[in-house]
Design brief:
CATH architecture of the largest domain: 3 Solenoid
Length: about 270
Amino acid sequence: MAKIHPTAIVAPDAKLAETVEVGPYCVIEEDVEIGAGTRLMGQCRIGAHTQMGENNLVYPFASIGTDPEDYSYDPSQVSYTKIGSGNRFREGITVNRGTMPGSVTTIGDGCFLMANAHVAHNCTVGSHVVMVVGCAIAGHCQIGDNCLVSGLSAIHQFCRMGRMSVLSGGSAISMDLAPFMIGDGRNGGVRGFNIVGLRRNGFPAETIRAIKSLYDIFFRHGLSMKNAIAKAEAEVPQLPEVVEFLDFIRSSKRGILTGDRGARRA
């Protein structure tokens, strides 16, 4: 049976695995499922219709799965939050459930949300994402696996960060940040590629060289996106990471953060 502190308030229909620990003054609302080994340290809230996997650690004053910050939200309708396993949610973080009926806010596995980070409604956050103190992602954003969202940075709604991209501290973007790239400033542009992350994750030298070529072609030569794509297809080995990068560029709806302070090129 789950270990529940006597001061905690747990909805009768909440499903807690036997090894779950619920600390003092926690609130767990209706239709919540929490997997084995998850620990709620105290004074945190898990909102209705939330699913959490195993071995998550939730620090005091965290709020997960509560109502979205959206004027159009109808609290009589059901929407969801789905959390994977092995995540750490530090003090004061907020994760809001979906805003439309049946919609979902999703966080993967092994993420680290530091103090006062915010994930808005209908976001999809991948696995092994680090969100540093005070950063915020607005509604409907997509954050790829192994991304780093640095402290006090902000991402406009409907934007995307490609896999293993980095947003520098204090930045604010309203365009998509391509996979493996480093964005900096207020739509300030791409300032490099994530060579440290690539090396730490064991990417072979051939792949790192190909990603370096993509960085040069798309963010240093002043080419239009159409011409940059053509040049990359002709000159860069079509490794899986290169294909992933080009597919991300082609599928952008908000435009790609570029190397010239976010300006759209001809």
